[in-house]
TrEMBL record, chain A:
Protein name, per record: Energy-coupling factor transporter transmembrane protein EcfT
UniProt KW Cell membrane keyword: yes
Residue spans crossing the bilayer: 63-96, 108-125, 169-189, 209-230, 251-270
Subcellular location(s) of the protein: Membrane
Source organism per UniProt: Lactiplantibacillus garii
Keyword Cell membrane included in the entry's annotation: yes
CDD domains listed in its UniProt record: EcfT
Alphabetized UniProt keyword annotations: Cell membrane, Membrane, Transmembrane, Transmembrane helix
TrEMBL record, chain B:
A matching Pfam family: PDGLE
Annotated signal peptide: none
Transmembrane stretches, start-end: 7-29, 41-62, 74-99, 105-126, 138-157, 177-210, 230-252, 290-316
Keyword Transmembrane: yes
Predominant subcellular localization, coarse grouping: membrane
Protein name (record): Cobalt transporter CbiM
Membrane topology: Multi-pass membrane protein
Boundaries of every PDGLE domain copy: 231-319
Length: 272, 327
């Protein structure tokens, strides 16, 4: 028994499906989904942080160095000193693996371009000198900030803040924010995907939809907060962060601040 | 509205961090008191910070095919309270600056001043005013629109002041090169025409949704507050009011015609005070220059300060609703 049935598909099934994408109507949902997905990927698989094992600095020293460097670059108007600071950063970048270095260059160029975009019209107001000098300083600041981001894990940022006597409430808020950013982002993405799947006609009032979406997200976050507090209480949370003070040699920390302090001294005495 | 690094001078950044320090201190104290009543406020702060982050990265469609994003300062103030919103937004800005490169590290104080202090507090004040007048939605809408626009105005002023505050000997600006005449209109136009309306509609719709679905989850303003610290602060400030006498010169712009004439002559601008000032209207106050005849000037200052406080307290008391009965 081998029934002879036609093996070919009917014509209407063979034709390629031409789904009418309502790009203009739903583009804001799709665009936000794309942004959210990239954020979630970034949060789920953070770039591996490169730590120099031989020169592992205390988290607070890293934070102080960043603040000192950014402040110095903002204050210094001497091109030679700025050049010295750029060289210092360049030597630090040499220690990064090639893949990290490429990441650094890409994100540094993008952030510098965005920051400079707003200042470009000043070329017609104040001339090229101001624009070039401003561009150089801004790029150097952004490079230092980018280097800190690449080489410092989030936990070190929290430890650094704690060591610098930042209030516990703020540190805890930061820690919870970064954890729940992923959870809330995931929830928002799922909601958007569900909305897109259920939407068969163009939305008349997209803002009403967005209002409901974020209202729902707030209520969800409220429920998370209640559950989280119950969990914290169950684990004996008393509202204080323990400050770990491992016995370690501090000379690399002080030594690492040396070049920055040297530039600071040069800035003070060379200013006039 | 996130100001990047190098747009503001270090002096401006330092001043704004110093301006924010008491706000953060009071916010931490207030939130700790709030946590005693509502335990969930503690984790809610962190979750609200991540919510604010998501609000700021969500692109909303605007007519013309482009998009804009809301900040959510007023919304958060209404949902979790203004002080908690201040802390949550501060944390969001710190996260954006340190981990995502949005907004400067040195300019963190300025960004926090604009977006974590001015925006939620202006918005919340309008909302409370609307609530008192039984038109909370109008209050919220006005608050959301005004909050973001006042914050944009302040950001514009901060940026626009830079060429005046920091420049080389030849007059070339060292930081933001745009003066007030460019920075303020540029910031305000974008916010008055687009961002303000986006913030208004977004805030109103989320608030409506939450109020409809779970009205108890909205922040409830404490009915009775301890007024003692405020009275102590006012009395302390009154006691400190003669501090200004330590300065020997007259404050800028408060010169009388004789002093102004001397100043103009010193700067080789004119030998005479403006005629309008010399022949203008001169009001003789009861306690001119806060001085009371027969008393030392410092005592006159303290008495003037106490009198002003008393008059304002009496005015506020008189304008309050008389529903309370005395025992």
């Amino acid at each position: 028994m081998d029934p002879k049935q036609p093996t070919e598909l009917p014509d209407w099934l063979q034709q390629p499906a031409s789904a009418h994408s309502q790009a203009s109507k739903t583009s804001f949902l799709q665009r936000n989904q794309r942004h959210l997905r990239s954020l979630l990927t970034r949060l789920a698989q953070p770039a591996p942080v490169v730590k120099n094992q031989r020169w592992h600095l205390a988290p607070q020293i890293n934070l102080i160095r960043l603040l000192l460097l950014v402040l110095l670059i903002a204050l210094i108007n001497n091109v030679t000193l700025l050049w010295c600071l750029a060289l210092l950063l360049g030597f630090q970048l040499l220690l990064l693996p090639p893949s990290q270095l490429r990441r650094f260059v890409r994100s540094w160029l993008i952030s510098s371009f965005v920051a400079l975009l707003f200042v470009l019209p000043s070329y017609w107001l104040t001339g090229p000198g101001t624009l070039l000098f401003f561009g150089l300083k801004t790029s150097l600041m952004l490079a230092n900030a980018q280097y800190y981001r690449l080489t410092t894990p989030f936990q070190d940022l929290l430890s650094g803040l704690k060591a610098l006597h930042c209030p516990d409430v703020l540190i805890m808020t930061l820690a919870i924010a970064i954890t729940y950013l992923r959870m809330l982002g995931q929830h928002l993405l799922l909601t958007m995907e569900a909305l897109e799947l259920r939407t068969v006609a163009p939305t008349k009032h997209p803002y009403r939809l967005i209002g409901a979406m974020f209202g729902n997200l707030y209520l969800k976050s409220y429920a998370y907060a209640l559950e989280l507090y119950a969990a914290m209480e169950a684990r004996g949370f008393n509202g204080h962060y323990v400050r770990t003070s491992p016995t370690r040699n501090h000379w690399p920390d002080y030594l690492s601040l040396g070049p920055d302090i040297l530039v600071l001294i040069l800035f003070i005495f060379w200013r006039n | 509205m996130h100001i990047p690094d190098n747009y503001l001078s270090p002096a401006t950044c330092g001043t704004l961090v110093a301006a924010m320090a008491p706000v953060w201190t009071v916010a931490v104290i207030k939130v700790k008191a709030q946590v005693k009543e509502h335990h969930e406020t503690l984790p809610m702060l962190g979750i609200a910070a991540s919510l604010a982050f998501l609000i700021m990265m969500f692109n909303l469609p605007i007519p013309g095919g482009t998009t804009a994003h809301a900040v959510g300062g007023t919304l958060l103030a209404v949902l979790i309270g203004p002080w908690a919103a201040c802390l949550a937004l501060t944390v969001t800005l710190a996260l954006q600056a340190l981990l995502f490169g949005d907004g400067g590290i040195l300019a963190f104080g300025a960004n926090a001043f604009n977006m974590a202090f001015i925006m939620p507090f202006v918005g919340y004040a309008c909302y409370r005013l609307g609530q008192k007048l039984h038109h909370e939605k109008i209050g919220l809408a006005v608050g959301a629109y005004l909050g973001i626009n006042v914050a944009a105005l302040v950001a514009g002023v901060e940026l626009g002041l830079q060429p005046l505050l920091a420049h080389t000997a030849s007059g070339a600006p060292l930081y933001c090169p745009y003066g007030l005449s460019i920075a303020v209109p540029a910031m305000l136009t974008a916010h008055l025409l687009v961002a303000g309306w986006v913030e208004l509609v977004f805030t109103l719709l989320v608030f409506q949704f939450v109020k409809k679905v779970a009205p108890t989850n909205l922040y409830q303003t404490p009915t009775r507050t301890n007024q003692r610290p405020w009275i102590a602060l006012l009395i302390g400030l009154a006691a400190l009011s003669p501090l200004g006498l330590l300065a020997s010169n007259t404050a800028w712009g408060e010169w009388d015609p004789t002093e102004l004439k001397q100043l103009l002559a010193q700067q080789h601008l004119s030998t005479q005070a403006p005629q309008g000032m010399v022949h203008g209207f001169h009001f003789q106050a009861l306690f001119s220059d806060y001085a009371i005849a027969g008393l030392p000037v410092s005592v006159g200052y303290i008495l003037s300060a106490l009198s002003a406080i008393l008059i304002f307290l009496l005015l506020i008391r008189g304008l309050q609703h008389g529903s309370e009965t005395t025992n």
